[in-house]
């Protein structure tokens, strides 16, 4: 049994300590086709898609969001009676000079290794490693809170934040970059007293 499995087993053995942290990616943006990090477009909310996702999820014990409009709008559409609290640490990666560019105008980073890609920062922006460092304390804090709650704690966030969470749980910085994260998908993490310890499922639509 590896360390992660042992942590999960120990957490599950304690009532009320093996709770879930659910990370949801926001709904599609209303102006697609461009790289969207710190820019703040509205979400394109489709009632049928929202209803489907709501039906697939347990009722949250608490909802936190990125301050981005698309995340706040998604949370409000999913659970209109439950006030979501913003956390500035959960913003998407800052893409600097690449922000807002059409996808076909972005540089081709395909030849880079995963390790190099994690360290690459667009001019004036953040690297994925920077994002992971910013997000890690928030994930630990919210994961610890989730471990004490009878219902899941939900974070409505961005693809980059979810990939950062997967990197943190797997223990390999570049690992999160290997995951696809669809809009309105859920990534579910098992949490123990120290925060997230294992992945229950990723990119669940």
UniProtKB/TrEMBL annotation:
InterPro entries recorded for this chain? Answer: His_Pase_superF_clade-1, His_PPase_superfam
The record's listing under Gene3D superfamilies reads: Phosphoglycerate mutase-like (3.40.50.1240)
Provide the transmembrane region boundaries: none
Name the domain of life this protein comes from: Bacteria
Protein name according to UniProt? Alpha-ribazole phosphatase
**Which species is the source of this protein?**
Marinovum algicola
